[in-house]
Amino acid sequence: MSHDRFSPSDCSKRVRIGLFMSAFPATRHSIVAAMRSTRPDERRSAFDALVTAYWKPVFKYVRLKWHASPEDAADLTQGFFTRAFEKDFFAGFDSSRARFRTFLRTCLDGFVANARKADARLKRGGAVTLIPIDFGEAERELRHQAGNLVDDFDAYFHREWLRSLFACAADRLRTACMARGRADRFAVFEQYDLAPEDGDRPSYAELARRLGLSATDVTNELAAARREFRRLVLEALREQCATDEEFEAESRALTG
Amino acid sequence: MISEPALDRLSAMFQGPDVTGTRYQLISVLGRGGMGVVYLARDTVLEREVALKIVERPSDEANEARILARLEHPGIVPVHDFGELPDGRLFYAMKRVRGDRLDRWMATERDLAQRLGVFLRVCETIAFAHAHGVIHRDLKPENVMVGEFGEVLVLDWGVARLPNAEGGSGIAGAIVGTPDYMAPEQARGDAGVDHRVDVFALGAMLESIASSAAPVLAIARKARSAEAAARYQDVQALAADVSRFLAGRAVEAHRERLIDRLSRFGRRYRLPILLVLTYLVVRLLFLWLMRI
Q1: Any catalytic annotation for residue B198?
Q2: Fewest CB atoms within 10 A around its CB: which of A207, A231, B36, B55?
Q3: Which residue ranges make up each domain of chain B?
Q4: Which CATH class is domain B99-246?
Q5: Cα separation of B107 and B84, whole Å?
Q6: Could you tell me the pTM of the whole model?
Q7: ipTM value of the model?
């Protein structure tokens, strides 16, 4: 399987091998708020969605900032999410003091620092419950990111989170297009906007030829796909924010 | 995986409007205002640059486009095209005007006559709009463009309003405008404001662009009287007073002292006075020489 191009079906698969194998409820509310739910099933669903959104940025961040080997980073990522669920790390999040993303990263740094101190004990006791996440995919992505020279880890974590946010919105877009019988719409978006390199982007005429559409259809489908993609990104962003105010601030930051 | 270039591309999609499917390509941001953003764009069909305005609230955009389409005047930027973006926002393309905003134009050395000349051109445009029942409601130097060839254009008609069909001269609505240029009744959100809010704003503009001469300052103060009834009752009356000043005549808004009147008389008739004085001096000299 090629890993050079984004593969939404892979993303979908990874989403479903998260913590508890459960899909997030169809009605999308804040997963941060849902993690405080007294209903265990709702809390688990929310946590699963959180892992889906953050496991890859967390893994890459641990690899680069903490100079962890791929195996150690995978263990630490799984350990972090498991411990966070068991110990209710995120219950203490106060949206008036920081973004959730910043809070999560602070918790992660604390967790990794403690885990490093307790490294020997962990190996002996095996206190971490392993979660089946495809870290190999994240590791391959890391190798693709030229140089991996990072001096601002805050910005790096933000960028990886944004990549994860866009990837899952693209996955949702693909699912929605397929369900509505609009495969061409996603194909136009994938080949034009998700093209790995700028030089690989086909012209509208070339796309039209490839997909057997008219040039006008290509621009119309691309416009519709982008409109839907924007909506799905904002929907996913809303789920990851605890309050309306945090969502407004995050969406303002996204839209410039 | 979403590659680095794709990530940049998708991020950019959120930074600016999506003009996919239109004939325009965005180049840069020309300006931002409360009502929207104006982009420098390329019209790929006619291969020319245009100013593309996009606002968040479609009703405002439609309002401005309708008003601009109604007003065909050399002092008002013409609208070329109007449409809807993929995200539902509306846009319209206007002629791209090269030049300086009036506030920046004034920052360089300009004499009083040049400044007042520009002001009178603004007055002509606003008088034309009023004659067509349109009130600008946000006049200020930032909304006036002085072109490369001296053309003067009034921009940003986004909050302009047509009078109510039933109410005649009255207009209703939220408080809009810029505080320093807003008439008291406009700032209060009164329902019955009329074209005299523009007279007030012009007075504020006049004060900011040419307050060095006492008669001009008096004109500006009269135009921006707190009570609408105490202002010039229309833009033509205001412009006429400024024109009188430029012609060296007495202005309505300024009560002159005798010394001021004589001084103005002297400036206005400088040449005839000099000729008469010269004649008298030569005559006296001639008489004196004849006695010798």
Answers
A1: no
A2: A231
A3: 13-95, 99-246, 258-291
A4: mainly alpha
A5: 38
A6: 0.55
A7: 0.77
